[in-house]
Structure formats: structure tokens, C-alpha cells
Amino acid sequence: MQRHHDSAVTAVLGPTNTGKTHLAVERMCGHSSGMIGFPLRLLAREVYDRVVKIKGANRVALITGEEKIVPKDARWFLCTAESMPVDRDLAFVAVDEAQLGADLERGHVFTDRILRARGRDETMLLGSEALRPMLKALVPGIEIINRPRFSTLSYAGAKKISRLPKRSVIVAFSAEEVYAVAEMLRRLRGGAAVVMGALSPRTRNAQVAMFQAGEVDYLVATDAIGMGLNMDVNHVAFASLNKFDGHRQRRLTVAEMAQIAGRAGRHQRDGTFGALVEEGPGAFAPEEVLAIEEHRFPPLEHLYWREGEPDFSSVAALIASLEAKPENRRLRAAPQSVDLAVLKRMAEEDWVRARTRHPAMVERLWAACGLPDFRKLGVDPHTRFVARVFGYLSEGQGHIPHAWFAAELARLDTVVGDVETLAGRIAAARSWAYIANRRDWLADPAQGAARASAVEERLSDALHASLTQRFVDKRTTLLMRQIGADPRMLPVTIGPEGEVMVEDHAIGRLDGFRFTVAADARANDKRMLLAAAERRLGDERGKRGVALAEAADADLSLRTEAGETPVLLWRGFTVATFAPGQSLVRPRIVLDRALDCLDVTLRAKIEQRLRGWFGDSVARALPGPVLLDSVQRDPAASPASRAVAAALVAGGGMVARSEVVAVLDKLDGVARKAFRRAGVTIGALDLFDPRLLKPAAARWRRALFAIRDARGIADAPRDGASVLVRGAPGATLVDGYRPIAAQAVRIDLIERIARAAHDARGAAGRQPFALDPALALSMGLTPPTIEKLMAGFGFRPAPAAAPPAADDTVPRWVWRGLPTVRAVVAPRGTHFAALADLAVHG
Question: At what angle do helices 419-436 and 402-412 cross, to 10 degrees?
Fold first, then answer.
């Protein structure tokens, strides 16, 4: 930039929210040409967009390390301080945040602009009041204007994250801390936008847009927000008051605290600041609070300086000029920065010295060393990268090979990965964007810049989406905003599958009458989500209650899967459970607690409908036990009939003959015929209803037993099996099988064998007889099982002296008579146990 020592130089100093940047933009636009240098790429882009709206895109330029938009007729330039072109003769020049001349890492750049950047007609330096003595000493004749803050900035004390007011920014000083705070806000308050200096402008703008639009009420940022980024912020909370400045971990200066805190409030609206803790290193000291509120900071005592026009006659001369000491006592030599450290390492290489014998190539080497370490790799890895770049720049046509450039960008051009991975790719892409925006580093810089920009944009969009997915719960944020406004206006809708929606965000499901919060909702959200949904689901539940009270038979069912607890279902949803009742076939129906939301009258109608359906269903599936249940309650029936009926009902339509033998003998012929008409077979070993052995009836019996015994439904026997291995699932009398020897035989088949044995006995008279061997063979019965069965029927093997049969291999049997049985008349726990005893002893 050309020097114009006779142009007017004005310093506009003051705290944040004084309109300094706005004033500079207005002044620049009032001149025929102009330029402003900013501390951040993000801020340069923000102001560029504003000026484009005023002057038009074809007359406004943006120049940063990674982005260059310079129309042919450009007259107004918005730049980062490092990228301000030095060869432009412009009417107006301004430098924003000039107090950064005191920054260890970048201070020398801002000091150089303070000393050398001049507009032809007007120059303006913007910064903190602390810069006043330095400007007076370094810029003779400067006019200094102080601007007061438009609004009041006051200390609001320490507040936990869970109690921060809406429209708050939480400031942290590392990516890890930013992510941790954002995750906590997601859990507690629905989420937050994230802003860091390493984000691309596209990602940063998308994140800020969410905050500005009210999609989230919180923003987590690094101290980058202190550099003039304009947002609608009410409160600034510091997660920490320490930062790593590139050399050491240190406490923020009061001026730095004020710069960040000053983002609270906008124009004439007051703002507040505070910390997240009341005590310890993260808390404000009283003197710091007073200084921030009154905007009183110690004046800067020095700025950092490095030669802005170094000597390119040789590499050694270049290094010497960059390490030269300043002549002015107000300036200090800048600490060695990354570019100088890289230059020194490069200068040690023989091939570098061999290629830098001309000033033009020395200048090209210095330009390559200026490639920023966006990836924060450290000096040695970054030097290797710069060496490869300079190797190409110093040979042949002096261009970086397109194949290498394209391959590296292609490697980065993938949006798969988490937040950290995408942020790392964007940092790497910035290096290639920087290379593409050098005027003569690529054969086709325009194409390269477009390609790099496209990759960065895709990665930026993916990073924004990833940040939003990771740190923003849109459902919770929307609910909190809606509930805070008016709970009655909460737009809850219910989809065809029962999904409960707030606008387009699922908050849970309504399964039958039970509302379940979405599985991805955290514990802290659930109470709020339940409260929000309950307010709006009453009408829907009422409609469903009426439908249940009038339900068709096809909509009701009983859950009968093995291992499950029997429940009554309506359209697949649980609406009732069971408890033991007065008999096996009459359990109590207990409405599910989810139906407690319905009024008492409707619940009574539902209970009546469910009892009716269940009773009808049991009667269809188990007509015999239902009829027997009425017999056991019939006062006109004989005591013996009621005792037998009670035993059969308790056994689900099956009972061992030995358990009722005493009262069975009391039944007269009429009663026995009545039992047979009821479907009961009075067998040799068991009394049973053959219809109950069919699969559908068996499922209902297992369900009723599970209800009575308060357990899960037992496993069923193998379908169609007539003989099971003893101990297999379903190998008991309650399942229709009698365990005999090592086998369990279905009771209806036992009765077939008993009849066959008695028929054979009758045909043989008093002589030994043999069973048809095909009968046992077809059933799969083993000889020990046959022997046990025959003994139970009253037979024993024929003596060896008996007349031989035609086939000696077939066992023969003789009648010995049934043994005397002293049995328990009815199973314990039934009402008829005492009655049965009376029948035995009467």
C-alpha cells in the first residue's frame, strides 16, 4: 500500500457496541474507493455482504487468505488484515480492532497496518481506548475520537448452565470445551449453535442463522465472537477465564474479557455478562467486574513489530530483516511466528539455498512460508508441506501440479464422519483454498479456487448438519419455546401409526392409551415432553375409550404366547390384565393403568365390554369347563356332582380319576349321563373333555392356568404329538398327558388302550389275553409304558404256566382287579374339598 503521510488519520476508540465498524463502513462508502482490514475472515465476509447490498457485487471485493473475490471494476475492498493488498491507491483505508497490535501471534501485522496503511484522502484506525497512548506516540498528528457505548453492560453474577437466560452466548477457549458445553446445553435446554474461528464462513453463518432465527436460544463460541461479529445477544457467560495463547496457558486480560463480554446487548438494548462458577479461577474478581462495567482498562505499553518491507536480496538478508529490532522504544520485536520458523528450517536445506539466488525467488520462498498452518500440525510437519509446495513453485513453470492439487482435494471431498473429522477436513481444505487464491501458484488459479471453494462448501454444509445433529435437539427446543409461549397452542398431532408430532418433530408414540416418550429423548427432557403431550392427548384418548367400549369382537384378543403374561389386547394394544377369580374360567379383569386417564363412567363401560367378550370367548373355546362351572354353583345339583364338577373346573376340564374316585362312586346314572352330555369322558385313569386337547382350546387352558398361578404361559407340547418324553414341555396332566414310566401319553389315547384291554378281556373270558400289538406300536409306546398302563387298568402279566399263545413274543394279561384307592377328593384350595370329604365319610 502506498504511503500518504499527508492524509488525515483518525482513530475512533471505545468499547464494544459503539458503532465504530458501522461508522467506518459508512465513511468508506462515502468515498470513491476504499478498504477495511478486519481481524477475522468471518467478519470480513459479514461486512462484504453488507457492502455488496449497497454498492453491488461487481464493485466490491473480498480478499482473505482462503477466499478472493475481486471483480474487474472493484473499488471497495473488505479484507483480513494479513491480506490487505499493498499496491492499491485508495481514497479511504481503515483497520479494525487495531489494539491487536499487542497480540503475541498476529500483533506485528496490525502494527504494520497502523504504521503503513494509508488512504489517499482518509485513514481510520478503530480499536480500544487502551490503544490511545500508543497511537499518539506512533502516528504524529492523529485525531482521536472517543465513542461511548450505546447501552449499559452490567455483571449478572454466576449462573449454572441450566439457569442461563435465553439469548445467551457461552464462551469457551478450546474446541473440546466448546463441544462439552454444547452437549450439556443439548441435554438441559434443547441445544445450542456453535461458532469457532476455525469454521468456514458458510458453516458459521448457518449456525448463527439458527441462533438469530430463534431455532436455538443458546450459542457456544470461542473468543472469536469478541471481534465484532454482530449477533442478537442478551447475556455472555464465560465457561472459563483462561486460554492458551499459542505459548502458554494464561488468564484473560481485563481488556480481553471486556471485548468478549461486550457482545451482550445491541445498539441501545442493555446486556449482561457473568461466569458459570462463583469461585475459583473461572470466577470474576471484583476489580475485573468494576473495570469491565466502567470500561476502564490499563493502557497498552507496547505493540509488537516486524519489518513490513523485508529485504529479499538473499535468504540470509530476509531472515535478518525479519529479526531486526524496532527503533521505536514503544515497539517490541515480534516473537518468532510459524512463517519465520518455517523459513529458518527451509534455509538449512541445500536445495532451497540453491534455488533462491535471485530476489524474486527469495520473495517466492517467503510467500510459500506464509502458507498458514490451518491444520495446527506444528512447525516440523508444516515445514515438510511448505517444502513440497515451494519445490514445485521453484521449478519448471513454477506451478503446483494439477494432479497433486486435484488428488488432495478429492481425498478431502467426502462428507462421511463426525464433527471433529469434518472440521479437520475443512482445515485441510483451507490450505488448498489458500494455494488456489495465490495469483501464480496454479496454472489455472480460477478453476482451482472454484474447485476448492466447492469442496469447502460441501464440507461446511455437512459440518453444519453434523453440529446441528450433535448439539441441537430440535424437538426439545421447539417444545420449550412453544410451552413457554402458551401451552394451549402446542401443535400436537397424532399420525396413523400412533406417532405424536410437534410440527414435524416426533416426541413419542401413543400406543393404545399409553404415551411413550421418544427413545432418543434424554431423562431431563422426559418430564417436559410428557407434560406437553398430556395436555393435548385427552381428546384422542377419549375417542379411543369410546371406541374400546363399543369394540367389535374382531378388535379384541388374548395374548397366549408361551412365556408371556396373559393380557387382553385391543387392536394389538394392552388394555387389561388379569387376576385370579372365583374359578379358573372366571378370572378378574383389571383395566390397564394407562386407562386411568379416562373418566369413571367410560371405564365402567369398557370393563363391562371386556368382561362380556372374555366370557363369550372362554365359552366358545372351553364350553365344557364353562358348563361345569355352572354345575358347581348350581344348588340343585347333588353334592357329588358339584364336587366332581369343581375338580374338573380346577383342572381345566381334566382330573385324575384317583382324585375323585370317592365322590365319583356317589354319582348315580343320571348324573353320569349329564357329565357325558357335558363332554366329559369318565375314563379308566382320568376324567377329561377330549375337545380340550385341540390346539385352540389348549392355548386358552394354558392362559387360564397362567392367570390363576400368576406366572407366564407354559410351553405347549409338540403339535400333534401323542407320546412325549417324560419331563418335556407340556408333559403333565394339566396339558392332557399322563407321565408313565419314561414317557408321557396323551390321556385320550390311554382311554383307547383301556377300552381295547377290556374288550380283549371280555372276548377271552377267564383266559389270559393279548392286546393288539399294532395299537401300542402305532402310538410309539415302549414295553415299560404298556406294563405300567396295564397295571393301572387292573391287569397283570399272565403266569408262565398259562396255556401258550400262538405268538410267544406277544405279552399276555390277566385281570386282577382295581386296587383300593384312598384319594383326595378335590384339589386343595377349591371350595369343594370339604364337601368331598363329607361325601367320602358320609
Answer: 160
Sequential DSSP letters for 623-647:
HHHHHHHHHHT-TTS-HHHHHHHHH
Work out how many domains the chain is built from and give that number.
Answer: 4
Q: Are residues 646 and 524 in the same domain?
A: no
Q: How far apart are CA 27 and CA 337, in angstroms?
A: 34
Q: C-alpha grid cell for residue 299?
A: 493502557
Same domain, 106 and 167: no
Pairing relationship of beta strands 60-63 and 568-570 according to DSSP bridges: unpaired
Distance (Å, rounded) from C-alpha 311 to C-alpha 362? 9
Length of the chain: 842
User: pTM of the prediction?
Assistant: 0.60
- Cell of residue 686, nine digits: 382320568
> What sign has the CA pseudo-torsion 5, 10, 13, 16?
negative
Integer angstrom CA distances of residue 717 from 59, 705, 706, 720, 776: 88, 15, 16, 8, 20
| 540 and 669 assigned to the same domain | no
Range of the domain at 508: 474-549
Would residue 744 count as lying in a domain? yes
Tell me: do 111 and 191 sit in the same domain. no
User: Same domain, yes or no, for 166 and 57?
Assistant: no
Burial code of 662-678, b = ≥16 C-beta within 10 A, e = fewer? bbbebbeeebeebbeeb
- Looking at the fold, whether 814 and 740 belong to one and the same domain comes out as yes
Element containing residue 675 per DSSP (H, E): helix 669-677
Answer yes or no: do 649 and 731 share one domain: yes
Instruction: Please report whether residue 159 resides in a domain.
Output: yes
What are 460's three cell numbers? Answer: 461446511
The CATH number that applies at residue 186 is 3.40.50.300
Last residue within a domain, chosen from 91, 116, 146: 146
CA 66 – CA 430 distance, rounded (Å): 6
pLDDT tens for 469-506 read 888 766 555 555 555 544 445 566 788 778 887 656 67
Structural domain includes residue 813: yes
352 within some domain:
no
Tell which residue, 446, 467, 448, has the closest CA to residue 456. 448
Q: Measured between alpha carbons, how far is 662 from 644 in angstroms, rounded to an integer?
A: 10
Sheet holding 723-725, edge to edge: 723-725, 743-746, 737-740
Look up cell 382295581; give the residue: 818
Distance CA(255)–CA(1), nearest Å, equals 30
* Per-residue confidence band for 838, with pLDDT thresholds at 50, 70 and 90: very low
How many angstroms separate the CA atoms of 28 and 51, rounded? 10
Name the β-bridge partners of 573.
570
Residues 142 and 161 in one domain: no
Q: 3-class SS at 233? A: coil
Q: Of the residues 504, 531, 549, which one is the last residue of a structural domain?
A: 549
Give the β-pairing of 737-740 and 743-746.
Answer: antiparallel
| Cα 783 to Cα 780: distance, rounded to the nearest angstrom | 10
Q: Average pLDDT, whole number, for the chain? A: 87
Question: How far is it, in rounded angstroms, from Cα 104 to Cα 227?
Answer: 16
For the segment 203-235, what is each residue's pLDDT rounded down to a tens digit? 888 888 888 888 888 999 988 776 656 678 899
Instruction: Measure Cα distances from 103 to 13, 198, 379 in Å.
Output: 18, 18, 20
Tell me which DSSP letter residue 300 carries.
P
